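ASSEMBLY PREDICTION REQUEST
Request ID: AP-0331
Submitted by: J.K., bench scientist
Number of chains: three
Total residues: 910
Priority: normal
Notes: Please return the full assembly, not individual chains.
Input sequences:
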Amino acid sequence: MSTITREDQAVPASALSERRPLGDRGFQVLALAAGLLVLVILVLIAISTTQQASSWFSTEGVTGVFSTTWNPAAGKFGALAFIYGTLITAAIAIVMAVPVSVGIALLLTEVVPPRWARPIVYVIDLLAVVPSVVWGLWGILVFAPWIAGIYSSIGSAVTGVPVLGALFGPPTSGASFFTAGIILAFMITPIVTSLSREVIATVPAIEREGAYALGATRLEMIRGAVWPHSQGGIVGAVLLGLGRAMGETIAAALVIGSSATITSHLFAPGDSMPAVIANEFGEASGVFRAGLMGLGVLLFIMTIIINIIARGIVQRSARRQRGA
Amino acid sequence: MTVATEQPKLDLREPPSWRRTKNRIATALMVLAMVLVVIPLGLVLYTVIARGASVISWSFLTSSIPVQVAPANVGGIGPAIVGTIEIVGLATLLAVPLGVLGAIYLNEYGGKNALARVIGFMADVMTGVPSIVMGLFIFSIWVLHFGFSGFAGALALGCLMLPIVIRSSDEMLKLVPDSLREASYALGATRARVTLTVVLPAAVGGIVSGALLAVARAAGETAPLLFTILTVTTVNRNLFSGANTALPSQIFANATSPYVGAQARAWGAALTLVVIAFILMLVARFVTGRFTRQGR
Amino acid sequence: MDQQPEQHVVAHRRRTEPTAQQREVQPTRGAPVFEAKNVSIWYSAFRAVTDVSLSVHEHEITAFIGPSGCGKTTVLRTLNRMNDLVVGARVDGVVHYRGASLYSKDVSATAVRRRIGMVFQKPNPFPKSIYDNVAYGPRINGVRNRGKLDEIVERSLRQSALWDEVKDRLKASALGLSGGQAQRLCIARTLAVEPDVVLMDEPCSALDPIATAAIEDLMRDIKSRYTIVIVTHNMQQATRVSDRTAFFSVLRDDKSDTRTGVLVEYGRTEHIFQDPTDSRTKAYVTGRMG
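STATUS: Completed
Returned structure:
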C-alpha cells in the first residue's frame, strides 16, 4: 500500500496521459485473481473428484452405476438407491417447507408491522444457525424414537388401503426417509423463507395500494398484485431449497436409517447420496472409495444444475422487476 | 349519530361474506406456518440446553476427550474446542481476505462486464455446492498427497465460506454511494486508493457482519471435516500435519454411540457449538446495527 | 354525533356552503360527499396535517393544490383510508362520507375503498393482461360471468377513452402500454368497480402534455357520473378541470422546528385563482411563493 501512496504523490500535474501506477494495476490483478478463484475452484472440484471416481465409472459402466444393488462386500456399487433416497427426502422436505416458508414470508411482508417482523426474523435466523449436526443429534436421539410410535400407528391404520398402504404402511422405523425429510424441511425453511421474502419485498408498494384501492381484501391483494410479481422468484427460491435439501449431509446421515433400498414405503429406512458418503467413506478403499467419490460427482452435477437454473430464474425475475 | 343531511345512512360495514372468511383463513394459515417453525425450534433448543447444561462445566470445556464408554462426569471436549477455534480461525484467514478482494473485483473493477457477471453468478451457484462435496474435493487434491491435517479442514471450510463472503461483501460495496467514489476520484486518486481508503471503510461494518455469519456457518459444519481432519481425541497443535478434531466431528462421532456418557458429552458439545454460533450471529447483528445507524 | 352541513368550508372563508335543501333549488351544486371537520393527521409523532375542514360535492371535480410537503396527498389518502396502510398513521377529527363516519370502529376499509377508488401518481397496472387488470375489481367482487365481465371491461375502457387503442390486444400484458395508456388503464380499472368517488393523486405528473390532455378530457367526461378529487402540483391543470380548489400550505413553527400542513383557503376555482381572500393564496397562485 505504501507503493500506491508514493506512486500517487509522484503524479506530475502535466502528465495527463501517464500510465497507471504499478500499485494500482497490481491491486486490480489481485482482485481479479480472487474473483477468478471461484471459477477455478468449481472447475477443480469437477476435475479432481471425477478423476478419483474414474475407476468406479470404468469398472461399473453406465448400467452398473445406475443399477440398484449397492453391496461393497460383493463388489457391487449401483447408485440408484441413493439417488432415489436423495430425491425422495428432498421432495418430502420441499412439500413441507415451501408452504410454511411462503406463509411466513407473506406474514412478514404483508401482515405484521415492522416492529413485530423483527422478532420473527430473529427466530428464522436462529433456525438457520442451528448446525446440521445438532439437528441430526436431536433427530436421532429425541425425534426419531418419538415419531416411530406415530409411524407404526399410521402404518397399521393404512395397511391394505391402496396407495396409502404402499406409502405409509409397514415396515416402519423411526430412522426413515420421512424422518429425514422432516428434519431437512426444518433446515431449508430459513433459506426459502428469506429468499421468498426478498422477492415479495420487491413488489412495489404502489401496486399493493392499487389493489387495496379497488377494495381488495389482503388475500385478494396478494393474489392480484404480489403473486404475479413474485411467482418466478419464489420458484427460484424453492429450487434453491431443493438443492440444499439434496446436499444436506450430516442430519440425513444420522436419521435416514442407512439402508440402500428402493421402496415406496416412506416410513422405512433408506439412504441418500451425501449420507452414505459421510457414513462409509472413512472405511472405503479401491473401487468402493471411487464409488463414493462418484456419488459425490453425481451430487455435485445435480446440485450445480439445480442451482444454475434457480439463480437464473431469480436473476431474471429481478431484472424484469427493474425493467417493468 | 344524528342525521343531519337528507341522505340515507350509509352502511360501510363489511358484510360477513366468503371473501372475508377466506381472507381470515389465509391470515390464520400464515400464523400457523410461523407456529410450525417455532415449535420444533423451541423443542431443539430446549433439549440442547436441558441436556447440555447438565454436563457443561469449566472442566468439561477444558478436559481431554475420554473413551466413549466413560460416564458423563468424566472428561470433556477440550481438544474439540481447540480444534474448532484453530481450524475455523485459519479458514477465516484464508476466505475473508480473498472473498473481500473478489467482491472488490466484482463491484469496483468488473462493473457490468461479462466476466464479472459470470463470476458473480457462479459465486451464487457455489454457495449451493453441498458441503460434503467440498470435503471430497479437498480430500482429492490435498489429503491424498499431504495427508490429514487441520489445514486441509480449513481449506474445505474456506471453500464453503468464500462465496458467502464474496456475496455479502458485494452487497455491502453496492450500498456505498457513487458520489463518495466520485468525490475521491475528483481529487485525482487511483482506483486502488479510492477502494482502500474510501469504499472499504464505508462498507466495513457490513463486510465484517457478513464475514461473521460465514464463520458461524463454517463453525457448525461437519461434512467437510470428516475426510480432511478425521476425528481424533487428542489436542493436535500442529495444524499442518496429522489428524485433528473439532466440535461438530465429536458430536457426530458420539451421536450414534450406544453409551450414555458419550451421548451426554454430545449434548454438552452441541450446546457449546450452538452458543458459539448464536454469539457470532448476535455480534454480526450488533455490528450491522451500528453500521446502518452510522450510515444514516 | 353532530353533523350539520358546514356553515363555511374553511375558517378563513366567509362563504356559506349549500345545504342539501339548497341543492334542490340549485341542482348544479352537488350534495356534500365528504365532510371533513378539524382533521389532523399524524405519522407517529409527526403531525403531517393540522385542523383541516372542508367538504367535497357530488359530481364536481375538487382540486387540492399547494407546495410540496403541504399534506395535500395525505388528506386525499384519508378519504378512502389508504393511510391505514402506513404504519403509525393516525387520524384525529371527523371525516364523514355521505353521512357515515369513515373512521368509526365498525367501518371496513375494504368496503370504503370499493366505493371510493384511487388513481395513483405513477401508473401501477398489475403485471397481468389489460383485460385482467380491468376485470380484477369486478372479479374480487364476485362477478364470474364471462359475458358480464366482457361488458364491464369494454364499458370501463370506453369511459377511460382507451378502448379504441387496446381493443385488439386485450390479452396483451398491461406492462407494454405507454405511460399515458397505463394511467388510463388504471382509471378504467378503478371505474370498473363503479365507485362513487374517484380520488386522483397527481395522476398526470409522470405523463407528457398530450397524455395529460387526454386524462383531463377523460376527467371532464366522467364527471357527470362520478365525484372526483384530484391532487395536482400543476395550477393550470386545477384551473382547467376543477370546480373547486383547496389551497394547502406548510406552517412552520420556528420555536419547535416543526412543520405541518394546513388548509389555507377553499372555494370555487375561479375565486381561488382570480380573487383569493388570503394573501398566501394570492402569493402562491401568482407565483410569488414556492
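REVIEWER COMMENTS: Chain C has a mean pLDDT of 85.
SIGN-OFF: pending second reviewer
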